[in-house]
Design a protein that fits this description.
Blueprint (H helix, E strand, L loop, with lengths): L3 H44 L1 H26 L4 H50 L7 H17 L1 H47 L3 H40 L5 H11 L5 H18 L1 H31 L3 H95 L25 E2 L2 E2 L5
Antiparallel strand pairs: 1-2
Length: 448
C-alpha cells in the first residue's frame, strides 16, 4: 500500500506554485495597465501642451503671489482688486530690476565698447604675429568668405528668423495667458476647493481636499527653494565678478538670479554672458578665472545644493530630483526640466497619502482581528460560566431529588430510632456519593 504523504506534499507544492504564478500574472497585468495609462497621459499632455503649460506656470506663479493677495484680502480689499494689485506689484518689481540692469548697461556701455575695440585689435595683432603669422590679406579673405557663406544661406537664415518670430509670438501668447490665468486663480482660488469637494461628493471629497492642500504647499515650497538656490548662485557669482573687477557685476548677478529659474539653458546663457563681458573688459586671463568660478558654483548648485534643498522642502531624495530633471529634460526639453521636480513632488504627495491610507486600513483590519479575538475569548468565558452555572443547577436538582426520595422512604416505613442526644450529621458535599443505609429488615437505626 502506497504512502499518501508524498502525494499530499506534491499536491501542496503544486498549489503553492500555482498561487505564486497567479499572483505574478495578476500584478504583471496591473503593471501593463499602469504603463498604458501613463502612455495615454503623455500623449494627451503632448497634444494639449499649449493649454497645459500656461496652467502649470500660472499655478507656480500663484503659489508665490498668494500670500500677498491673502494679506490684502484679510485687510478688507476686494478679491479682484487684491489680485490686480498683486500682479501690478509683481510687474513693478520686474520693471524696477530691468531698469536697474538697463541703467547699469547704459552707463558702462561706452567703456565696454572701447574695451571691445581694444580686444579686437589685440586679437588681430595676435593673429598677424607669431606664432600664427597670418597676413592681413588672409584675414580679409576669411572675413569675405564668411560674408559669402552668410549670403548664400540667406534662405535658411530667413526660415530661422521666421521660426524665431513664431517662437517669440508663441512665448508672448503664453505669457499673456499665464497673466490672465494667474489673475483668475488669485481672485477665485479659494472657491475652487469647495467646488471640487461638492462635485466629487463624499467620501472622495475628504481625500481630494487633503491631497490638494498638500500639493499646494509643495508647490510653494518648490518656488521658495528655487529662489533660494538662484540667490546663492547670483550672490557668489556676483561676488566673484566684483573681486575680479568685471564691469556690470550687479546686472550680471541679477541676470544669473532670474536665469536660475530656467534649468540648464538659464545657467548656460548667464554664465556665457559673464565670461564674454570679462573677456572683453579684462582680457582672457580674467575671463578664464570667471569661467572657473561660474563652473564651480553651478556644479555645486546643480549636483549638491539644489537636490538637497529641494529634496528637503519637497521630501524627495536628491537622486529622485536628479533623475526627475534628466527625465523631464529628455522628454519635454527645457520646460520639462523646469517642471519635472514639482511634478515629481506631486506624485510623491499622492503616493505618500495612499501609503498613509493603506497603513490606516491595515491598522483597522488588525484592530478588527484583535477585536474578533477578544469577542471570541469573551464568548468562551461566557460559555464556561454558563456551563458552571448549569453544573451547579444539576447538582442542586440531584440533591433535592435525593432528599425527596429519603423523605418518601421515611413516611412509608417505621419511624427511625433516635438517640437522646443525636450528633449533628455532616454534609457529605455535592460531589460525595450517597451512602446506602438500608438493610434487609429496613433502615438502620440512626439512618436518615
Amino acid at each position: 500500500m502506497s504512502d499518501p504523504a508524498p502525494q499530499a506534499r506534491r499536491r501542496m507544492r503544486g498549489h503553492v506554485i500555482g498561487q505564486g504564478g497567479r499572483w505574478l500574472a495578476e500584478w504583471s497585468l496591473r503593471l501593463i495597465l499602469i504603463v498604458g495609462a501613463l502612455w495615454i497621459i503623455d500623449l494627451l499632455v503632448s497634444r494639449l501642451w499649449v493649454m497645459v503649460l500656461p496652467v502649470l506656470l500660472s499655478l507656480l506663479l500663484v503659489s508665490v503671489l498668494w500670500p500677498v493677495t491673502d494679506w490684502l484680502r484679510r485687510h478688507k480689499v476686494p478679491p479682484a482688486a487684491a489680485s490686480g494689485l498683486t500682479l501690478l506689484l509683481l510687474a513693478g518689481v520686474g520693471a524696477g530690476m530691468v531698469t536697474m540692469v538697463a541703467t547699469s548697461v547704459i552707463d558702462q556701455s561706452g567703456e565696454l565698447a572701447d574695451k571691445a575695440t581694444q580686444g579686437l585689435r589685440q586679437v588681430q595683432d595676435w593673429l598677424t604675429g607669431p606664432p600664427v603669422n597670418l597676413q592681413p590679406d588672409q584675414i580679409s579673405g576669411a572675413i569675405d568668405s564668411l560674408v559669402g557663406r552668410v549670403q548664400s544661406s540667406a534662405d535658411r537664415l530667413a526660415v530661422g528668423v521666421f521660426s524665431g518670430v513664431s517662437t517669440a509670438a508663441s512665448m508672448l501668447f503664453t505669457l499673456m495667458l499665464v497673466v490672465m490665468l494667474s489673475f483668475l486663480f488669485l481672485k477665485d482660488g479659494p472657491k475652487f476647493l469647495p467646488w471640487l469637494k461638492r462635485t466629487s461628493g463624499s467620501p472622495a471629497a475628504v481625500h481630494i481636499g487633503e491631497v490638494s492642500s498638500r500639493m499646494w504647499n509643495t508647490l510653494g515650497g518648490f518656488i521658495r527653494t528655487q529662489a533660494l538656490v538662484s540667490f546663492i548662485d547670483a550672490f557668489f557669482i556676483g561676488l566673484g565678478l566684483v573681486i575680479m573687477g568685471v564691469p556690470l557685476a550687479l546686472a550680471l548677478a541679477l541676470i544669473t538670479f532670474f536665469a536660475g529659474f530656467i534649468p540648464i539653458l538659464g545657467a548656460f546663457v548667464a554664465g556665457g554672458l559673464a565670461v564674454l563681458v570679462a573677456l572683453v573688459a579684462n582680457g582672457p586671463t580674467t575671463a578664464l578665472i570667471v569661467f572657473i568660478i561660474i563652473l564651480v558654483v553651478q556644479q555645486l548648485e546643480g549636483n549638491v545644493l539644489s537636490p538637497i534643498l529641494q529634496g528637503k522642502s519637497m521630501e524627495l531624495h536628491p537622486a529622485v530630483v536628479l533623475l526627475a530633471v534628466a527625465t523631464g529634460g529628455g522628454l519635454w526639453g527645457i520646460m520639462g526640466a523646469f517642471l519635472a521636480v514639482p511634478v515629481a513632488a506631486m506624485f510623491a504627495v499622492v503616493l505618500r497619502y495612499l501609503n498613509e491610507q493603506i497603513s490606516l486600513r491595515a491598522e483597522e483590519a488588525y484592530l478588527d482581528e484583535q477585536l474578533d479575538e477578544e469577542e471570541q475569548i469573551a464568548a468562551s468565558i461566557a460559555r464556561s460560566r454558563t456551563g458552571t452555572r448549569g453544573l451547579a443547577d444539576r447538582l442542586t436538582f440531584r440533591r433535592r431529588g435525593q432528599d425527596a426520595e429519603k423523605a418518601e422512604t421515611t413516611d412509608s416505613g417505621t419511624a427511625p430510632y433516635r438517640h437522646a442526644d443525636p450528633a449533628p450529621e455532616s454534609d457529605p458535599g455535592p460531589d460525595a456519593a450517597p451512602t446506602d443505609t438500608t438493610t434487609e429488615d429496613g433502615p438502620e437505626p440512626g439512618g436518615s
